[in-house]
Specification:
13 helices, 7-stranded mixed β-sheet, Dehydroquinate synthase-like, alpha domain, Rossmann fold, 20% strand, single chain, binds glycine, 13 strands, alpha/beta, globular, binds nicotinamide-adenine-dinucleotide, two-stranded antiparallel ribbon
Length: 358
């Protein structure tokens, strides 16, 4: 088992990564320090992995809350259902919540933990690649508002993250590729050597080779932990984690969040950010080509979905929440391994980039 620390003073915590660590009794005993435990999961993950967790909480006063499966349930309504369950079962401030699932379960459970009686402990047990390399780490918790994704939330760190690589064996292929987009992101934004490694090893990774998976999750978490330790609340530097997200959100919104997964949109968005950087003359064509071929190997789209028109993307980008005082800030690239946040780009070149991906 590997251990990575997220260094945040009194909120420092560990991420444990390994094959079948969900069977490790000692690990659970160390963290289940309350008699009152609520496991939050969803209807797809529960039949697969809930029983493994239940073995560790058998003696305790534990409850489960099973969400329906899907992004649309990351809502205030289901957040309220979790809170109601805690109140109904008379759970006190010392209770512990366990989030067992992908980013949807993790984000909602984390937000419930942040709010219940002004904050209770929670443990992230991420079961998608995206959640293991990204959403379970760094303390962004949220639910969606009917008019916008992640509009209601809090920065609230977990007590620990347990990432068991064996649970990824049941993940559908598209979901796995969506997670790879976030993995590739770390190579592009701050870890050029990791990008080189991915170019060499992507085929074994796509086959879900255990050693490669464990390495990739570890390296991704180290990168994310470094960024979060420097800028927990995204005052500045943390924004580099949003590479490709402004383009990606614009595409997802234009598709009403139906046809592409978030990671697929981020993958295409990262290539668009690289393309705009190249048009600005700060990024090499050869590096753009390297990113494109890695995305293709990871089975990610490198063109905008055919149902999306230019105007929709352009307008959606302008209303992106990262638009500060009317100025749209974008994460752009200088090299593979070096990203930065800027508002200095020409609108004409941005339009050219969008056009060239249609
Ligand atoms: P998800 O939680 O919807 O999971 C994807 C699908 O895989 C779902 O159908 C789920 O039930 C299923 N699933 C989960 N684990 C499985 C397993 N082991 N085997 C088989 N099926 C499994 O989606 P996601 O991609 O994990 O997360 C997306 C969410 O994460 C979005 O809401 C996004 O906003 C959020 N997010 C948050 C952060 C953050 O920093 N908090 C970062 C990135 C994304
Ligand atoms: N997923 C972006 C962040 O955690 O900041």
């Amino acid at each position: 088992m590997k251990t990575i620390k997220v260094n945040l003073k009194d909120r420092t915590y560990s991420i444990y990564i390994g094959n079948s660590i969900l069977s490790d009794t000692n690990l659970f005993e160390r963290y289940l320090t309350s008699k009152q435990i609520l496991i939050v999961t969803n209807e797809k993950v529960a039949p697969l992995y809930l029983s493994i967790i239940e073995k560790h909480v058998g003696e305790l006063d534990y409850e489960t809350y099973i969400l329906p499966d899907g992004e649309s349930f990351k809502s205030l309504e289901y957040f309220n259902n979790v809170i109601s369950k805690l109140i109904e079962k008379k759970f006190s401030r010392t209770c512990i919540l366990i989030a067992l699932g992908g980013g949807v379960v993790g984000d909602l459970t984390g937000f419930a933990a942040a709010c219940y009686q002004r904050g209770v402990k929670f443990i992230q047990i991420p079961t998608t690649l995206l959640a293991q390399v990204d959403s379970s780490v760094g303390g962004k918790t949220a639910v969606n508002h009917t008019s916008g994704k992640n509009m209601i939330g809090a920065f609230y760190q977990p007590s620990a993250v347990f990432s068991d690589t064996s649970v990824l064996s049941t993940l559908p292929e598209r979901e796995f590729s969506a997670g790879l987009a976030e993995v590739i992101k770390y190579g592009i934004i701050k870890d050029g050597k990791f990008f080189d490694w991915l170019e060499e090893n992507l085929s074994s990774l796509v086959m879900r080779d255990e050693k490669s998976l464990s390495y990739v999750i570890e390296r991704s978490c180290i990168n994310k932990a470094e960024v979060v330790a420097e800028d927990e609340k995204e005052i500045g530097y943390r924004a580099i984690l949003n590479l490709g997200h402004t383009f990606g959100h614009a595409i997802e919104t234009a598709l009403s969040y139906k046809k592409w997964l978030h990671g697929e949109a981020v993958g295409c968005g990262m290539l668009m950010a690289a393309d705009l950087s190249r048009r600005l003359g700060i990024f090499e064509q050869s590096d753009l080509d390297r990113i494109k071929s890695l995305l293709i190997k990871a089975n990610l789209p490198v063109k905008i979905h055919k149902d999306v028109q230019f105007e929709k993307i352009y307008e959606n980008m302008k209303i992106d929440k990262k638009s500060k005082e009317g100025i749209l800030h974008l994460v752009l690239l200088k090299n593979i391994g070096e990203a930065f946040l800027t508002s200095e780009y020409s609108d004409e070149l941005l339009k050219e980039t969008i056009e060239s991906f249609l």
